[in-house]
């Protein structure tokens, strides 16, 4: 089969708070990581960096609001906000009053090969 399909509602919520849904695993993606996160109102996510894996990450807020603490700086975010993180950056999502849902995508820095004019 040349494709896989999954709906977020069909993915089990895991992690210590049940905030993450492992999209990459269910789709069988091998080129990059991709996960769905749902934080309840005023909940702090997992603070981490990717220095061990060397992954550059992008997160996009798809619902709600809050802040992202990045290397000690708090960056306000809302629906439609994209953030890119260097592997060494210490980051932590913190949901606001409405909670926050976001998707994060990561791959080793330098692994992308640009094609065409885009």
Task: Provide a descriptive summary of the structure in words.
The protein is mainly beta and 118 residues long. It has one domain: Jelly Rolls, CATH 2.60.120. It is built from one helix and six strands, in the order βαβββββ. Strands 1, 2, 3, 4, 5 and 6 form a six-stranded antiparallel sheet that branches. Strand 3 and strand 4 form a beta hairpin. The radius of gyration is 15 Å and the shape is globular. The two termini are 28 Å apart.
Overall pLDDT: 92
Q: Helix amount, in percent?
A: under 10%
CATH architecture name: Sandwich
CATH top-level class: Mainly Beta
**What's the story with the biggest beta sheet?**
6 strands, antiparallel
CATH topology, anyone? Jelly Rolls
Using only C-alpha atoms, the radius of gyration works out to: 15 Å
- State the shape: globular
Structural class: mainly beta
N-to-C order of helices and strands = EHEEEEE
The tally of helices reads 1
Distance between the first and last residues' Cα: 28 Å
Q: How many distinct domains?
A: 1
Low-confidence residue ranges: none
Give the CATH superfamily. Answer: Jelly Rolls
């Amino acid at each position: 089969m040349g494709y896989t399909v999954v709906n977020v509602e069909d993915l089990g919520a895991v992690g210590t708070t049940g905030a993450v849904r492992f999209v990459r695993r269910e789709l069988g993606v091998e080129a990059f990581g991709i996960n769905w996160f749902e934080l309840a109102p005023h909940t702090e996510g997992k603070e981490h960096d990717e220095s061990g894996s060397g992954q550059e990450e992008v997160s996009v807020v798809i619902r709600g609001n809050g802040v992202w603490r990045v290397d000690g700086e708090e960056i306000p975010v809302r629906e439609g906000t994209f953030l890119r993180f260097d592997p060494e950056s210490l980051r932590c999502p913190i949901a606001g009053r409405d909670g926050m849902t976001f998707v994060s995508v990561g791959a080793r820095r330098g692994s992308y090969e640009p094609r065409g004019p885009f």
